[in-house]
Amino acid sequence: MRNMGRVFVNETKKITLEVTISNHQDDAFSTTAMFKFGDKISYYGMKNIRNGGVSCLEQRERVECDIANPLSKDEKVEFLLEFKVSIIVLEEIDQPIVVEGEVMTQSEEKHPKDNIRQLKIPLELQAVPELNVKTASTPVKYNKEDQLSINNSDSFVMATDFIIHNLGPSYLPETTAMFSIPMTVPDGNMLFASTDIHVTRGNISLECDIKLEDNGTSPTISPLTTTQKEVSTLPAESLSKESTANVQRNILVTKQAVTSCQLATCLTVRCKVPEIAAYKQTILSLHLNFSNAHEVFKILDYLQIAIDMEMINDANTYLAPWKRTHSIRVQLSFLADLISGKPINYIWVAAASAAGAFCCIMFLWFLIWKYRCCVTKMQREIHVIKRESIKRRTRRQTSHEGVQYKSIGGECSSKL
């Protein structure tokens, strides 16, 4: 009975034991195996490998397995026992966990005698720290007018941060961070040299070994034509220092290339990373100086660089193989040309704004006054019309009454 390699309890939290039971004596018609493992691990399952027919039954802190087929002399049976670590206790993880195995066989003699064999095997458990790595970098933008802009600055250096978070439960001893950086571009030029690369941890530069690897291939230019929409925030030098100008333009990418270490000459940078405590994090900054960008972008509008980052433990006991690929973009950029001139006098701006507001108020007052005048005139005309109408009505009534009076007087005089 033996375990299959060192047990990394943080990776799968499973323990696999390879069990081999051999019969070197007389034929046995009954074979039983008993395994005791304590309370630090639990039984997970069994798998047959050779000469199947093994069945196992879990009991309290032990497993009993029966071999169904009789074991002849010089025959053996093989199977796997799987256990699981449910709870990781740092204080106990360095103490070995012992699994006791006991095999009993019985032959067909008149006076059967049990042949018992016992074996103890310690399990060396190791709490492997789990990693979570986040990457962040600023896209590199290149302008055809021989200007390189990184984060809207004139610097040629771009920093890519690799945030390494140790999720525990144990500390991460000194490891090696290996960066694989492609160097070749389609025309054969180098994007940057080995002296243009360095790695820092905070404000401290790490000692790194740089090795050039050439696989004899180079990236190719893609004929794909795409349109990319870019919004740039640029400093407005003719205004105040805090002012910015937003410029938006559609960029037509006509020649683009994607390069990686599988397609180009590659630089391998190996840097020692100090110990990282459990539940802590550290930040590695990879600085790249694009010193040969002017030559590269005479034929390219867009370049994507795939950087591989791998964490390696030389002893290979604390860290399982871990790798991540991070891509950075170098693309054509549009830089706005602002008209040069004197800084704006904000006092005159304020005065002009006040004058404009005063003109608006006067104009509104004029409109209101004009409206009131029109309404007053209309009301006056309506009043005059009403008064003339009343006068005409009064005159008509007066003349009608005088006619009636005259006719009545005439009748009276005739009767007399």
From TrEMBL:
The chain crosses the membrane at residues 346-369. SUPFAM superfamilies: Integrin domains. Residues 160-292 form the Integrin alpha third immunoglobulin-like domain. It is found in: Membrane. One of its GO terms (molecular function) is integrin binding. Keywords: Glycoprotein, Integrin, Membrane, Transmembrane, Transmembrane helix. GO terms for cellular component: external side of plasma membrane; integrin complex. Residues 8-122 form the Integrin alpha second immunoglobulin-like domain. It comes from the Eukaryota. Pfam families: Integrin_A_Ig_2, Integrin_A_Ig_3. GO terms for biological process: cell adhesion mediated by integrin; cell-cell adhesion; cell-matrix adhesion; integrin-mediated signaling pathway. It is a single-pass type I membrane protein. This is Uncharacterized protein LOC115214909.
